[in-house]
Amino acid sequence: MSKAILMCILSEIHVRLSEFETEELYRELLAYFGLIGATDECQALENAWKDPYNRCEIEEFIKAWLKRKQRRKGETITEVV
User: Fold this and answer.
1) Nearest Cα to 50, choosing from 58, 38, 60?
2) What share of the chain is helix, strand, coil (3-state, %, to 5)?
3) H helices then E strands: how many in the chain?
4) What's the pLDDT tens digit per position in 17-69?
5) Which 8-state DSSP code applies to residue 1?
6) Of 34, 32, 38, which is closest to residue 1 (Cα–Cα)?
7) Could you tell me if 46 and 5 are in contact, meaning their C-beta atoms sit under 8 angstroms apart?
8) How far, in Å, CA of 23 to CA of 4, rounded?
9) Is 51 within 8 Å of 3 (Cβ atoms)?
């Protein structure tokens, strides 16, 4: 399963993630946009990224995902302290 297009997307919006986080985001992104099981998931994501409306939706999804991830990390740190 190639994540090349996701890496390009993240690069364009200036986001750096660990390999684990990239994999997690990729799976959630495909699920959210109904691309799981597409003949070529990476190509489907690339086509969606080229469409201006979908591009905006993908960016918003990634931003929201990052905020949730940040909140979860904050909650984990709070629970440990």
Assistant:
1) 58
2) 75, 0, 25
3) 4, 0
4) 999 999 999 999 989 988 887 778 888 888 889 999 999 999 999 999 999 98
5) -
6) 38
7) yes
8) 11
9) no
